[in-house]
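Suppose a colleague, Dr. K., hands you the sequence of a protein chain of 141 amino acids and asks what its three-dimensional shape might be. Before reaching for any lab equipment, you can write down a predicted structure in C-alpha cell form. Begin with the sequence itself:
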Amino acid sequence: MKVFLDTNVVLDGILPGRTYEKDSVTLMKMGVPDNIWFRIASISLPTIVYCTRKHLTREEILRRLTHINSNWQVLSVGFGETWSALHSPCPDFEDAMQIAAAELESDVIVTGDKKHIAPYTCLPVFTPAEFLEELRGHSGD
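The predicted structure, expressed as C-alpha cells, is then:
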C-alpha cells in the first residue's frame, strides 16, 4: 500500500508531545516488510527542518532526512501540482499542493488534520490512529 504522510504526521513522529506522537512513531517504524511504502511531498522537507531545528541537532535532522530520502518516495511538487493547488477549492495552499502530489502516487493519505484534507481529495484519509486501526482490521482477514 502506498501511504502518503502529511507533514504534520512526520513532525508528530519526530517531536515529543505532539497530538499524534505515539501513533505517528508506530506508523513511521513500519515499511516494506509490512507492505507499506511511504510517500511524502518534497515541500515537506524544508518544513520539517524548520520545525525541528530548535529541538534537534543538525546531525540528527540530517540523519532523519537521510532516512526519509533513502526509505520513502519523496514526491516532487512542481508545475502540475502547483497548478492543481491554485485551482483547488482547498483553502490551504500547502495542503492543496500535498493533496495534488498524493493523488498521483498514493493509495491513502494519513494526516493529523483530516478536516483540512478529506473534503478536497478522492483518496481515503485517515488520522495515524485510524490508519493503524485499519491495518489491524485487515491483518485479521
